[in-house]
Structure formats: structure tokens, C-alpha cells
Design a protein that fits this description.
heterohexamer; A: mainly alpha; globular; B: alpha+beta; Alpha-Beta Plaits; binds adenosine-5'-diphosphate
């Protein structure tokens, strides 16, 4: 129902757009209306880009809060650089790799740099946004994939090696798989559906994180003979700030993925997104309480993110009930997944793999299980897409990070890890004024 | 002159302080320490894994007094502890000899300087 | 003046709306304009919802900053859960309790769950927003009422009992009194005026807070024989972050309450809101300096919030001068109120009762004293509304929290309170890395 | 190209606006479209105002993070008061000093207080925004100028003297120079170009900062016989939060300065702004790594701000390549500038002078070197404008702050500085619960 | 009874703790201190200026033992240090006499109270 | 060998450190403590209520020296204090006997190990 209204809305826009702007002076009445609608759409997309931008602050805070004080400068630096480098890389070549125009469906490249074509600033480019808005929104998305990796490899990775990997990952791997679906490639033709990127963004980031964590090994002291030993994050307030900002940012991430300000479609997406987030938080808190005896804040926070990642693939296809179910299940999944990765001795300080990879896949499959598109056929498309992108990304990360490991090394020395990367990589402390406790007990 | 070093439970500082005041002992110094003793370590849980904290938060009191006050101090501290349940980890008192004491402000030394 | 333009704007919208969207294809010129206006309105309301969402982060930070480090995980957890549970509860039944459609004016219920009717996604539902936007905006509002309570009862309440109370309060009490005015009930017919909820949201939250604080008792050591002994909050930066975010969120809280993007009305509301906040901050800082000798940051922060709560009932009715007066007085009130509650031995760690209850009532009355509606008659309506809602909410809270106290208990044990609720309720520390000072002196 | 489209867009709006709103009932078709476009424009400007508002939180966090824990309450209080006092002062007289209407081009004053004229709430006032929106957006801008000073003088200035200076500076100096350009004065007639205020806001704030720092002297222990001794800021996470929020706020600062929601113009501005910020961050990080051996987080953060300030004067005139160049150069400049001011024994704890003054001037000149307006003639206008405003502002600050120094004194006592201004000025600690380290080594 | 005060490098706490346990010494108290010694001061960089931190982070262990255990404790600590590179700044051990020791929980005194 | 424990005002660390260096005493250890003494407690204000902080922030210096240096250390500390106003709360010095001293790095003991 919504779908059809949305299509109607878009087609009207498109008609208006074509007849519109360019011959402004001739037909003032029509035009101005089209102008207004275009301006609203574009405004929403710009705001959505700003909201996705703020997710980077969210990630920075979450990752800092869930790791140790002695590595905070390093994590902050990585997050600051990811957004900077991400935007520049995406402008230099990422955008044109992801949206190559007409192409073979697997790989295309429209050249270096970004310039709007003749119609780039009018609704003839797209009824929903200008070329610049398009770029900005997509660039903010792209950088999130690298940020996801950043959290998982925290507290032990060499700064230079990480940044190198981030550039390659954001600049090449993410856009290629992105082009398969959002660039109009073979997956989109196969009818794979990934509304705002449970697979294209989150699982992609998660695969990168998984491979890096495997090649990197756990932090010193994380797994002992007697089992997993937690290394508590140093600031729960920062972690909480991070998650609230991520939820806020997701309004732009999912809401902006409608690609217009269509009232019905966007508002539905915001509601399903919020419901899933809320259900994810409640789900994780409940499961954590039942399973572990105490309501664990960091699990509740992960649960919210899990719900958000879970709904992302089908945010525009779900009813409120679907969204709550998806969120609730995501919240439960994330708790068990965190425990499982502990068993597997894969050390992920912030739970990024559980949240983004595991729930990303779950969310992708959920499109075939819940909501307007549910059905076996769709489910098979979803699985196929998730697998295809998973294989490509994992291989890419394996080769890229493997080569970096061979050539430059990826892990800081034991002394540096013990003393903290802040001193080792930056000769600087995050909190020079505060007495920190004896951490190694 | 003796230096009394007491390792105590953090929540007992307030009553101990009052007990000392009643014995007219007004001056002391206190610092944060972590201690390992007999007491069961604490469980905390983080991201689903519970773990033991073996170094527990304690306070370290330093009270320099003249001989005659030593027993007062020891009593004051032990009395407070007595009111509370007899769990392990209530701490220790160590008494060390002081050879000299100087009041920085005036340069006074010896027994008069201590109080 | 503004009022009439606003009404004109809205009626035009409405006419356009009815003739609009549905018969799109027939009359393209008119339609598209209506479409555009509807899209703008709805866009603003969605953004306003996002801004109100961010108020929850604001509250979380304010409450965390103004309480002790050993209770931070607990407070963060409560705030995270309130928004999660609040959204879910409001979807399950709160929304339909608050907006029951045609009803007897006192109590009505439109059934469980939320589904947009046939026209729910068009301007036929409302010229300003879709059904989903409506729900989202209202749900974010609802959860704030519980958050207000959360701050006042901090550092000593049992987690489970609090969450139970929060569910009942957001799900039942708040919507019922809300329906009396915003749901079109008896208060709105009586011409009570509460633009964005000085009474309906803030005083309601404040009454809940007052009753809970009375039933709960003060924190250990807060009141001694020699009088009130302050228990300083552990982080002024966090408290300041909280207040800035709350001010930002209030742009959505008040600005969104115009229920459209009408340029004149919304921009006036944003200006009166900001002026009142600024005047509140200055007022409280001045009074605190004069009365206490030193400019107290926490009082200035409370003053800003006091100004914001004070202007909320009449933000669309005031001139700039009215707004500054209301704000200034709010700022003064809050300082004296905090001192008064200290005298009354009512322990409110964050000043929630002073800010939300006392200034909420003041703001409600101010509509009868300042601005376009000023007059004795209006003042009497305002008083009547404030009293009616106060009595209902206080009684509701008394019974609900009283029963919870009887059945489950509401207060943590003395040991737990001394050691901190983070260890007691969550077996977790907020800042495991930092040496905290000996707090009990 | 963009310019012309933008002008087209605006003129259409204006035509529609004039024929529009007021005679609504007569010509419904045209009107509603104009109504919609006006509503979109105004909505964007209101949101931009909110984004600029959030810059104040950004400044508060940046300044707090880069200074010592013992002065945090004081810095937070200053930042809270600046926005409060700034908004009130600007309403009382600043706005009418800056936008005096027709005037001699050097100084004019339209009277105390703010009231919209007859058309103030319609597009007849301006096709982009209402009178109230105009005020709000401008008021948020104005307060930033004082905030810039606040960081540079941190940790040693008397609270009262600073607030007095801030009032005079925001209320009088800033609006006067502002009127020369944005108020339609002599600079704008000379064809000086300063899109969003590299000179009018940032350099102005920076000049104020420079003069105050010179009259105030360095913090105790900052410069010893053996050279500059750093005084590390106490919280890198807070500083990072600050910079992310400032970047976000700049979307409104620059994007809002388009003064309408024109899709092409605004989206271009957001892209150039982000590209410059990213390039600034990368530039500063690179230069700092090469020059100092280690990637310094605080320099990278300053680099982002430097890029933002650098692009501000010509954000609507640049291509993506121009923007990256400007940003990269800004990032390099800021590192050398910080080192230079250290050599000059000018103590600026947060690097405000380097970021806002030095890069503000650089950004102003860049309009004559890069982008659509590049050329010797334009360059000379840019230099002239930067110099004229610099001289006026520096003199004004010298006299004002000099008089305050003579009459009230500007510096806290040595004891107070050593013990911290939080205790001295506020009798309060920012982090009473944490053990701080022995700072004076 | 002796009070052994050891100033050690923070990262050596864990191995020292294990070494003590092997010698059946289970109780000790530890606090954060800053120390100035022979060791080169550290360089940190802030906003382009590098500077020396002359007071370095150390831990201060306090272990009260009966005479016969003194050498065990000293050995345990020195052994751990021996495995690591011989840089300056590895710390000191001071041995002080204790005149009396009291277990707060029970009031026991003397040699039995210490462990 | 003596262990000199000095409780001092935080802002006096820097000058005392210099004074010690002049007397060729380069090694010491310092920690954060809170002290209660004669000095007037401080007033702080929070949310309109002023309250006394009775435990004030002090530093605790530990300097182990051979006999002949004891008076230098005491003088160095007292001299610094002498320059400042004679308010209460300037602190105390306690001198305790050390029986043995070990340099962890080398295992050296006795007088040579101390410096
Ligand atoms: N021999 C010791 N040397 C140093 N500290 C000690 C010693 N014995 C006890 N302590 C300190 O006292 C605290 C409590 O000691 P514990 O032996 O657990 O108490 P109890 O004697 O009541 O069982 C320990 O955590 C430790 O800090
Ligand atoms: N005489 C002393 N008094 C107090 N503390 C000392 C003394 N000598 C060493 N220390 C402490 O031990 C730490 C390491 O001492 P140092 O002399 O540098 O080690 P090393 O003997 O291995 O060169 C110092 O930082 C200081 O804290
Ligand atoms: N007898 C004592 N035992 C332990 N600490 C003491 C003793 N006397 C003084 N102190 C410490 O020295 C600090 C200053 O002592 P105080 O007696 O106030 O100084 P003054 O002698 O200059 O009046 C106190 O805060 C406390 O930490």
C-alpha cells in the first residue's frame, strides 16, 4: 500500500521534474510546485546526510567508551581520520566506482573526481536530490563501513596499517559491492532487496571486522587458560552517548534511504526504525538479565544497535509488529553472538561483529521472513545476496589486510599494547589529569 | 612516637573518624589503595562474562601518635569493625616506630609536633 | 496577529489537502502545491520528533552528571530503557489512550496497537503530518514524562520497581491527562491552554517525581541534624552537555508543537523559546550569585531548563519581552525552589521537581498573565487545568508507586546504596579505570 | 553556473513572494507554490539556526577538553553564559546595529528591541525566511564570536571581566563590522566577499582573542626560560566531541548562509564545507606527523576546524578541488601557526587564534585565489576588507579590554590560578569524585 | 615483623603477584604513586611541543610479613625484574620494622595476625 | 637509612623538588592523599548549599636517604614552607628507620642502593 503511494509520489515528481525547472520561465505555475517539492526532498536528504555524519561521532564515543583509557587518543584519532579520509577517498574515486552509470553489473568506474553533469543540480538528475546531495549522503554512508572495523580491531592495531586498510576498504571494496545493488548491478536485477544497507553497509563492515580480528589476534590477556577474561571499557557514559547518537543518526540513515521526503514512506521508516531499536534494547536487556543474572548496560546498548541494523534492510517494508519482532530477535541474537565470539576466542572489544555482521545478515534475511516482501523466493534472493557480498568482502579483506600484515605488520608491540597505544602511537594521553587504576590485576 | 598504618574498608572511614575524634585524635592522612587479602574477591560482569576482581578497594589510614595514644587508636578502629558483620577483609593495623617528627610550619620537633 | 495568519495558513492547507493528494492525477497544478506544503510540514514534524528524541540523551547526561559516579551505570540504564519501553508502550496502548478520537472527554481508548487509517499517510489525516509522524512525535514526548521522574529518584531506587512505575506512568497516567487537552477532552473545551505541555508533560512528570521522592525518602547522608548536606554530582561537563542538548531538543518540542511548518508561527516559537531559555539561565545565575555569593553552574543549568519549561505553555502567544520576563522569573523561581525543597527535606538530586513541576505550573499560569491570551478568565482556566491534572497525576502516582512499594519495595538496601547501585543492580562500574575519591567524609 | 541558477531561483521566489501570500485568496494556484517554497526555505534556515546553536556546545566541549580539569566549571559556565547573554544582547540591540536598514554604510542603529514589521512573517520580508528566523540565525552567529575569545583566554581570566567584555564585543563590535558587509554597508558596496564569515565572524573573534591574550599574559608556567612548556588538556574525548559537533554545526553555519534552501547552492556548500574540513584534518595530521614525528590528535582536530574556517568565506564559490586545496593549506597553516604563537609567547590554550584569526584571514584571501571569483582585483578587495575589519576590531578590543583591565582587572590571583578557577570563582569542582594527578611537576 | 615497601613498575604487578603466591604470600596492599629516580623521563608531545614527564607512574606495594618471609618477598620481586631488560627505573625495596600488627576483624595481634 | 615521609601542600611540590635537587637528593616517590589536620576545612557550594570539606588534598612524599642526608631533606622542605604564609595545614614530616634497602634492578643492598 505504502509502496504504491510512494511510487505514485515519485512518478509525479519525476513528471514535474522533467517538465519543470529547466523551462522555468515558460510555465510558472507547474514549475514552482515542482521546485518546491524538489527543494523539500533535497532538504531532507541533506539533513539525512548530516544525521549520518553524526553517526561517526556516535561510533567514536561508543568505541572509546568500551575500550580502555590508555587507548582513547588512538581510537579517537582513528575515528576522526576515517571520516576525513573517507570523504576525500569517496570523492576521489569511491563514488564513481559505486555509481558507474550503465555498466556490466559487476564492476564499472566512471572516472576520478566528482562533477555534476549538466542537470546535476536540478530534479532532472533525480527528483529527490541534487548531485551534490547525492554525493554527500553516499560519502557519509561509505565511511561508516570503515568505522565498524575500527571498533573491532581497537586497542592493538598499528595506526598506519589500519588507515591504509580503511582507505582501500572504503575506496574500493565497499563501492564495488555497493554497485552490485545500489549502483544498479546484478544483485538489484536479481531482485535482492536491501533498503538501507543491512548487508551493503553493515555486513560489509562486519566482514571486514571479522577478517581483521582473525588476522590480528586478541588483546593480551583477553583469553586465558581459564577462559575469556573481560577487559571493561573505561566509560559507560561515553558509550551511552554513542548509542543515542547512533540511533539519532539512523533516522537519517534509514529515513534518508527513501531518497525523497515522501511523507508516508519516510515517516513509516522512522517509526519502524525506532520500534526496532527500542525492541532491540529491551530484547537484549531481558536476555542478558535472564541469561547472566544482571541487566548489563553494554548489552542493552548493543541491543539497540542490533535492532537498528536488523531493521535496516527492510525498514520500508515492515509493519509495526514486524519491526518489533525483528528488533526483539536482533536484541536476543546479539547477546548470544557476543558470548559465542568469546567462545571462539575472537576478540571484538565493542561487539561490532555481533552487531553489524550477525544482525546485518539477520536483517537481510528478515526481509524474506517478515513484511511486504516475505516469501521463500525473496528469502532465497536475500540469502544469495548476503552470501555473494560476504564472500567478495571477506576475500577482499583477507587479501588486503593479509598483504598489509606481511608487508608492514598490523600489530603493535607487546610493550606498546601494555603501556597503551596513546603513548606508543601518539606520545599523548587522553586523560593526563586523572589517576587511573592499576588495570592489569 | 608511633606511626599507625591501618588498611580499612572504605565505608568505615566515617565512623572511624568519629571514633578517633572522641579519643581526641584529630589528625590523620588517608589514601586510596587496592588490597589482596583473605576476603573473597568480587564478581563483576561485563558483556556477559563474569570475572573476579581480586584487588579490592581499601583505604589506607596513617595516624602518627605519641605512645600513650596507640591503644586508643587501635581500639577506636577495632570497635567500629566490631559492630559490623565478621566477614573476612576487614583489614589490618601495623604499628611502626617513628624516630622523629617535624611540624613543617614551625619547625617544632618531637612529641609536641605530632598533634 | 500571528494567530490569525497561522489559522489562515492552516485552513489553506486544509482546503488544499482535501482537494489535494487523493485526486492527484486530475488536477495536477493545485495538487503538487498541496503535496509540497504537506511534505514540508511533515518533514518539520519528523525533524521535531528527532529533536525531542535527543532530549532523552540530554536528560541522561544531565542526570548522570549531577549524581555520583557509583550510580552512573544505573542512571544510564534507566534512561536507555525509558526511551525503549516508552516507545513500545506508547505504540501498544498509550497513543490510543491519549488520542481516542471522539470520546466522553475524560477517558477513551481506541484499542491496542497502531495502524494508520485509510488516509493516514495523506494530508487528509492532518494537513501537518502523517499518522506515523504523529505517533513518533507523540511517543518521544510521552517518554520524557518518565525521564523527569528518573532524575528525581536517582541513586536509591530499585531498578525493577522504577521501570514498572515508568511503564504504568507513561502508558496510562500521562495519556489520560493528555487526552483531556490534546486529545480534545474536557480541558480543551474549557479553553485551558497548554501549547506544548508545561502542564501536560512537565508538571505531570514533576508530580510523579514529587510523589516518588516523598515515598522514597532522601539519599543516606543527605539531611543531617545540622541541615542539608550536598552530594555533589560527579561530572559538570556531562551535566552541561545535557542542558545544551535539552535546549536543542526544545526547538523540536515547542517548534514541533505548532504541528506544521508555518514559517511565522514556528519561527516565533523558536525565538520565544530561546529567549526564555537564555533569560532563565541569566536569571538563575544572577539570583544564585546574589543569594549564595558565587555563580553556581548547576543553578545556571537548571535556570535554562526552568526558562524552557516556563515558556512551553505559551510559546506561541508571547512577545519577545513576555518571553524574557517569563524566563527571568523562571530562573529566579528555580533557585528558591531548590533551596525550599532542601528545607522540606525532599531530596531531588537533579532539581527535577523545581524545574518541571514548579516552573511547569508557573509557565501554565503565565499564559494568563503574559501574552496574547492574558486575562483573569484565562488565568482561572489555567489554574483549573493545572490543579485538575495535578490532582489526578499525584493520586495516580501515589496509588501506583504506593502499591509497588508495598508489594516489591522501592528502595535498595543501605549497603547497596553505600556501595553504589552500579555494583548492586548491574555488577558493573561506569568508570572502572579511574581512581575515585573517598566520597563519604 | 551555480551562481546564475541560484539567482534565478531567488528571483522566482521573489516574484512569487510579492505576488504571493498577501493576496492568497485571490490566486490560489500560484500562492500555494510560493507558500511551499517559502516554507521550505524558512524551515532550512530554522534548522540551520539550530545547527549553529549546537556549535556552542561544540565550543564548550572543545575548550573544556583542551584545558585543565581544575578550570572546567569556569569554562563551562562561560560558554553557557555566552549563549544566554549573547542571544539577549543581540535581541536588545545587536540585531538592529547589524541590520540597520538604509544607513551611511559605516554605522547605523534601528533602535532597541526586535519587532517584525508588517510583512515580517511573510516572504515579503525575505523570500528565504521570516523576521524571527532571521533574528534567530543571526543571534546564534553573533554569540560564536565571543565564544572564540573564551577559549583563548581560558584558565586565567576573571569571570566578571570576561562576561563584561563578551557583552560589549557581541553587542557592539561584532554588529558594527557586520553591518559593513552583511548589513549592506561600505564593504559590500566595494564588492568584498565573505560568504558566511571567515572574516566577519571568525577573524573578528580571533582578533578579539589575540588582543585579550596579549593584555592578559600567559598562564603561569606556560613559558619558562627553556621555552614553551605544554599544559595538556584534560580530556581528549571531550575535545573530539567538540570538533564533531562543530563540523555538524558548520552545515548550518555555511549551508544556512545561502539564505534559502535552494537545492543546488546549499548542497554545493555542504560538499565544499565537508571536503575542506576533511582536507584540513588530513593536512594537519600529515604536517604534524612529518614535523613533530607523531600524529597529534589535538592538531588533527584543530586542522578540521581550520579547514572549516578557511572555506567559510567562499564556500559557495569553490569547486571540490578548490575546497580540498583550501582545506589542506588551512590544515598546514594551523600547525605552523600554533608553533609560531608558542614562539611569540602568546598563550592560547585551545589554538583559537590560529584557527579563527589566521585561517579566517587565509580563507578570506582564498576567495581571490581560488574558485569562481579568483582574480587580482577580488584579492585586493578581500585584503582590504580583512584589514579594515581587523583594524577596527583590534582597536575596539584593545580599548574595551584595556579599560576593563584598568578598572576591574582581568586576571585572577596567582593563588586562584594555581588552585583552579573552579574553586576560586565558583567554589565548586567539575569532577569532585575523581582523583586528579599532581599537575605541577 | 617487617613492612616491605616496594616501588615497582606498573606492568610488573601481575608477575610479582604470581611470584608472591608461589611463596605463599597472599596478602598485600598496592597504591598508585609517581616517582622520580634515575630513569630517563618520558617524552610526551602536546600540540607540537614535546615535553618531559619527570614524575613517572609507579606502583607502591606494601607487604607485611614475619621475619622468615622477608627474603622470599625480596627474591620474588627481584626475580621478576631480572627477566626484564636492565634499564634504570626498576624501583626499590625498603624494609621497615613493624612493632605490632592487629587483625581488625578479630583483634588478634602479633605474628599470627600478619598473614 | 631513614624513610622520610612528608605530608605537604600540593602546590609546594615543585619548589620542594627543586630544593631537594639542590641538596643532591634526586629520588623520591609521591602519592595523593587526603588529610585532616588543624587547618580550616574548605567551603564549597553546590546547588545553593555550602558545605565543608574536611579532608583536604595533600601530597605524601617518601624519601629514603642515608643518615647524613636526613637534615638536608628536612631543611629543604621546611625552607620552602617558610617562604609562604604561616597558615595551619602546612603538613608534617615523619622519620622512620629503614632496616634494609634493595635496588631491584641490580639486587644491591644497603647504603649504596638507596640513591
Ligand atoms: N600482610 C599484609 N600486608 C599488607 N597488607 C595487608 C596484609 N594483610 C592484610 N592486608 C590488607 O588488608 C586487607 C584486608 O586483609 P584480610 O586479610 O583480607 O582481612 P582479614 O584479616 O579481616 O581477613 C587486604 O585487602 C590488604 O589490603
Ligand atoms: N631513595 C628513594 N626514596 C624514595 N623513592 C625512591 C628512592 N629511590 C628510588 N625510588 C623510587 O623508585 C623508582 C625507581 O628508582 P630508580 O632509582 O630510577 O631505579 P633504579 O634503581 O632501577 O635506577 C623511582 O621512580 C622512585 O619512585
Ligand atoms: N599526627 C598525624 N598523623 C598523620 N597525619 C598527620 C598528622 N598530623 C598532620 N598530618 C597531616 O598533615 C596535614 C597538615 O597537618 P596540620 O596539623 O593541619 O598542619 P599544621 O601542623 O601546619 O597545622 C594534615 O592534613 C594531615 O594530612
Amino acid at each position: 500500500m505504502i509502496g504504491s503511494k510512494y511510487i505514485l509520489f515519485c512518478s509525479i515528481l519525476f513528471v514535474l521534474a522533467i517538465t519543470g525547472w529547466t523551462n522555468t520561465v515558460l510555465a510558472q505555475d507547474e514549475i514552482s510546485a515542482a521546485t518546491a517539492v524538489f527543494a523539500v526532498n533535497n532538504l531532507w536528504l541533506m539533513i539525512a546526510a548530516a544525521l549520518v555524519f553524526i553517526m561517526h561521532l556516535g561510533f567514536a564515543m561508543l568505541e572509546t567508551g568500551l575500550t580502555r583509557a590508555k587507548n582513547s587518543v588512538n581510537i579517537l584519532f582513528k575515528n576522526v581520520m576515517i571520516i576525513c579520509i573517507g570523504v576525500l577517498t569517496y570523492a576521489a574515486f569511491g563514488f564513481n566506482l559505486m555509481y558507474p552509470g550503465d555498466f556490466n553489473g559487476f564492476f564499472g568506474f566512471a572516472g576520478f573526481g566528482i562533477t555534476p553533469g549538466e542537470d546535476g543540480l536540478t530534479s532532472a538528475y533525480n527528483p529527490g536530490y541534487t548531485y551534490w546531495t547525492d554525493f554527500l549522503f553516499q560519502a557519509m554512508f561509505a565511511a561508516t563501513a570503515a568505522t565498524i572495523v575500527s571498533g573491532a580491531v581497537a586497542e592493538r592495531i598499528k595506526l598506519g596499517s589500519f588507515l591504509l586498510f580503511a582507505i582501500i576498504f572504503v575506496g574500493i571494496s565497499y563501492p564495488i559491492t555497493g554497485s552490485w545493488q545500489w549502483g544498479g548491478g546484478w544483485l538489484s536485477e536479481m531482485r535482492f532487496y536491501d533498503f538501507a544497507g543491512s548487508t551493503l553497509v553493515h555486513a560489509v563492515g562486519g566482514w571486514g571486522a571479522l577478517i581483521c580480528v582473525m588476522l590480528l589476534g586478541p588483546r593480551i590477556g583477553r583469553f586465558t587458560k581459564s577462559g575469556a577474561r573481560p577487559i571493561p571499557g573505561h566509560s559507560m557514559p561515553l558509550a551511552t552517548v554513542g548509542v543515542f547518537l547512533l540511533w539519532l543518526g539512523w533516522f537519517g540513515f534509514n529515513g534518508g534511504s527513501v531518497l525523497s521526503a515522501d511523507p508516508g514512506a519516510v515517516s513509516l521508516v522512522l517509526v519502524t526504525t525506532s520500534i526496532a531499536a527500542a525492541a532491540g534494547g529491551v530484547g537484549a536487556a531481558l536476555v542478558a538479565s535472564l541469561r547472566l543474572g544482571k541487566p548489563d548496560l553494554s548489552m542493552a546498548l548493543n541491543g539497540i544497535l542490533a535492532g537498528l541494523v536488523g531493521i535496516t534492510a527492510g525498514a520500508d517494508q515492515m509493519t509495526v509488529l514486524d519491526a518489533s519482532s525483528i528488533g526483539l530477535i536482533s536484541g536476543a541474537i546479539v547477546v548470544f553472538s557476543v558470548l559465542m565470539f568469546d567462545k571462539l576466542k575472537l576478540d571484538d572489544p565493542v561487539g561490532a561483529i555481533s552487531v553489524h555482521l550477525v544482525c546485518g545478515i539477520w536483517g537481510t534475511l528478515a526481509v524474506g521472513l517478515f513484511g511486504a516482501k516475505a516469501g521463500l523466493e525473496q528469502l532465497s534472493y536475500q540469502a544469495a545476496g548476503a552470501i555473494a557480498i560476504g564472500i567478495f568482502t571477506a576475500l577482499f579483506a583477507l587479501i588486503a589486510f593479509g598483504l598489509i600484515k606481511l608487508i608492514f605488520g598490523v600489530r603493535v608491540s607487546m610493550e606498546e599494547e601494555t603501556e597503551g597505544l596513546d603513548i606508543g602511537e601518539h606520545a599523548m594521553e587522553a586523560y593526563p589529569a586523572f589517576q587511573t587504576l592499576i588495570s592489569e590485576q | 612516637m608511633k606511626l599507625i598504618i591501618a588498611i580499612i574498608e572504605p565505608q568505615e572511614l566515617a565512623p572511624i573518624r568519629e571514633a578517633l575524634m572522641e579519643h581526641k585524635i584529630y589528625k590523620f592522612t588517608v589514601g586510596n589503595v587496592l588490597g589482596q587479602g583473605l576476603d573473597l574477591s568480587k564478581h563483576e560482569v561485563y558483556r556477559g562474562v563474569s570475572y573476579d576482581i581480586k584487588l579490592l578497594k581499601k583505604l589506607r589510614l596513617e595516624i602518627a601518635v605519641n605512645e600513650e595514644y596507640v591503644s586508643h587508636v587501635v581500639d577506636a578502629i577495632c570497635d567500629v569493625a566490631r559492630d559490623a558483620p565478621k566477614e573476612a577483609g576487614r583489614g589490618k593495623i601495623f604499628i611502626l616506630p617513628i624516630e622523629e617528627c617535624v611540624r613543617i610550619r614551625t619547625g617544632e620537633t618531637g612529641a609536641v609536633a605530632i598533634g
